[in-house]
Design brief:
The protein has 116 residues and is mainly α. It contains 7 helices and no strands.
Length: 116
């Protein structure tokens, strides 16, 4: 089990404890009752938020230069961003260094979470 999966497990336990439901209650049901999204969805939104900050940054900044250098390798953090963008069907944003609309990305990721 990945560390990130354990975070969801802890979140689900906390929800069950707060709501006072049985440990076999479906995760989707208790999460929907609380109105929460999964930690995975929150994490992906924060990654996209950082992406937006980096692509909108002045090209003279060292952070932006390192970001562009790292993006050229196509692995590591930038690969994760590309994977998230392909999941929400906006790979052209990655290719052209364009900011992502976070509201629509949140909706799209939430819908994916609900389908699983």
């Amino acid at each position: 089990m990945l560390l990130l999966d354990k975070i969801d497990t802890v979140q689900n336990r906390a929800i069950r404890l707060f709501l006072g439901v049985h440990k076999f209650a479906p995760n989707k049901a208790v999460t929907a009752d609380m109105g929460w999204v999964s930690s995975r969805t929150r994490r992906h939104i924060e990654i996209l938020r950082l992406w937006n900050r980096l692509v909108n940054m002045e090209p003279t900044r060292l952070t932006k230069q390192i970001f562009m250098w790292d993006k050229g390798f196509g692995r590591g953090w930038c690969k994760n961003v590309r994977d998230i963008m392909s999941e929400i069907d906006c790979t052209e944003h990655f290719t052209h260094n364009v900011a992502v609309d976070l509201a629509s990305a949140r909706t799209y990721l939430h819908n994916i979470q609900c389908e699983k």
